[in-house]
């Protein structure tokens, strides 16, 4: 398999963590690229020019991080990250993490192209409110929760999103305002798969 990615995409990091947790790292060739530079090889694999993009053993290209994660979960015999037992809860948490990731990522991209003043526009304010609501809900739901073993896709999604907030939007001081959520996240990100894929 072949995976197109870069080091600062939270979506690509999610897939890398899934690869490690599922024991598939050696089965995938990493193709590091800049999706903003219209990388010709990436565009051939995924005309949308977005990462991550995975080319399977059969030459089929998969895009969107959660769809790639579902595929990888199915092709590895390791314990499932999307188990049928508790499926609703896992997908619920995955959705919360994905929504937080999207709000943070879109804030970063909007600032990159239009400057920080874009935060004061209607969409910028909407994203900011969404981030705060999501953090409040995550703090409420995960503050007393023990990390799962094996880890689930929901936990990966949330932990990556929280790390991305700290990496790109440090002014969102979620750790100071959510000490129990910080403790939960620290337990998840202590895993080797998170340590080896840390944002830099």
Automatic annotation (TrEMBL):
The protein, known as: Glutathione S-transferase N-terminal domain-containing protein
A Pfam family reported for this protein in Swiss-Prot or TrEMBL: GST_N_2
Domain (GST N-terminal): residue spans on this chain: 1-80
Native organism taxonomy: Bacteria, Pseudomonadati, Pseudomonadota, Gammaproteobacteria, Oceanospirillales
PANTHER family named in the record: GLUTATHIONE S-TRANSFERASE OMEGA, PTHR43968
Species this protein is from: Vreelandella neptunia
Record InterPro entries: Glutathione-S-Trfase_C_sf, Glutathione_S-Trfase_N, GST_Omega/HSP26, Thioredoxin-like_sf
